[in-house]
Amino acid sequence: MVHGSVDPGFEEVREEFTRNFADRGELGAACAVYQRGRKVVDLWGGSRNSAGEPWEEDTLVLVYSVTKGLSAMAMAVAHSQGLFTYDETVASYWPEFAQNGKQDITVRQLLSHQAGLPVSQRFDAAQMADPDFVAHALAQQRPAWKPGAYHGYHAFSLGLYESELLRRVDPQHRTLGRFFQDEVAAPLGLEFYIGLPAEIPTSRVAEIQSFSMLRLLTAMNTMPKGLVLGMMWPGSLTAQAFRGNLKVSSPTEFITKGYHRIEHPSVNGIGLVRSIAKAYGVFATGGQELKIRPETLEAVTAPAAPPSAGLRDRIIHIDISYSIGFAKPTKLLRFGSSERAFGFPGSGGAFAYADPDLELGYAYAPNRFAYRFFDDPREKALRDAVQRSVSRAQGQVRRTAGDDGPVQ
Fold first, then answer.
1. What are the tens digits of pLDDT across the range 118-142?
2. What is the pLDDT of residues 348-402, one digit of tens each?
3. What are the angstrom distances between the C-alpha of 406 and each of 80, 156, 392, 393, 403?
4. Bridge-based pairing state of the strands 2-6 and 351-355
5. 264, 307, 270, 317: which is closest to 153 by C-alpha?
6. 3-class DSSP state of 52
7. CA distance 103 to 7
């Protein structure tokens, strides 16, 4: 069931990927790792749909909120191009945004889920396809808390705000999805889309399976309890935020209702898992291929600046850390070898991140939906195996160098 390759020293990753199918209920999935610009892990296997058709080398997969990390990369490229600064107000670039108390919100606060804008009106597919319509609705939103005082997961709304900000500052007025294709995907040779092009057949996309709202609402032992309780109360800010701004009743309806063809930079990224890993690998090695400036890379890798009230997220009710579009390591969400790491998890079990200290980019995505906010056992086993593989290689280099030579 498992195909692909691993470089010498990464055999444990293949073993854990195989164990996912044998012991952890995996249906179909892919995992890839780039280190120092080299692809060292590229694995795929299982079934891509309910008909049992195999997950192929070119199978694409919907990665939900892992999309936020790719969108943050596009915003970082725009920052490096001098299109905006993180500490300027959003309204200075998008004057209509200043309505209803939003005039002092900075770009940094918006990208770090501190703006108090996790809820917006719901859009159907036709409305979502009209960026002017969406922008008008977003500009009227009133913050749910004092911006900068708290943070709370902008699960659906963040990407829409990012896209409109980018439209305002880009000389070509491109949406985020278009900007990503032109300025990130094309230079790196990635196949990853924020809005699947019409010429790409849906048959190439893995079918997400096993989602159940009832199962989600009873997942107290695997999901943050405050998140589950909040979703049980329709009037709560948590329930409103996770209701989302798309007229769908479950994640599986992204494709059946056509949203996969429309840009939604928070949640509807579809692509090859190896492309996600490659993108993070480029950022982990300094981003020269994308002309990332040192000040941009420093902002991306710096420790998160928490809101004044601390790390407790008002939507998911756990301590978590966000910085300019990425999630950062915390005591609950541990990834990478230091706090310089950055990435984002996705609904159902997907996760991707960059580790600048190890010059490593990692990505995993399945098509069997899991009820965890992060640390799905399938993904965690692979992530830990990658870290152990790199640690063993570093230890071997040190032993080879001995006391007389430098450690590389």
1. 998 889 888 999 999 999 999 999 9
2. 999 999 999 999 999 999 999 998 889 999 999 999 999 999 999 887 655 544 4
3. 34, 48, 17, 15, 8
4. unpaired
5. 317
6. coil
7. 51
Q: What is the three-class DSSP state of 240? A: helix
Task: For residue 310, count other CB atoms closer than 10 A to its CB.
Answer: 11
For residue 188, which of 341, 352, 77, 46 has the smallest C-alpha distance?
77
Say what the pTM is.
Answer: 0.95
Q: Which two tokens stand for residue 94?
A: 């998008």
Q: Integer distance in angstroms from the first to the last C-alpha of the chain?
A: 37
The CATH number assigned to the domain with range 58-368 reads 3.40.710.10
Distance separating alpha carbons of residues 46 and 259, to the nearest angstrom: 26
The SS3 call for residue 364 is: strand
DSSP 102-120: TTT-BHHHHHTT-SS----
Joined tokens for residue 284: 């982990």
User: What is the identity of the amino acid at 107?
Assistant: V
Could you give the dihedral angle defined by the CA atoms of residues 140, 81, 356 and 5, in that order, rounded to the nearest 10 degrees? Answer: 90
Distance, CA of 198 to CA of 351 (rounded, Å): 26
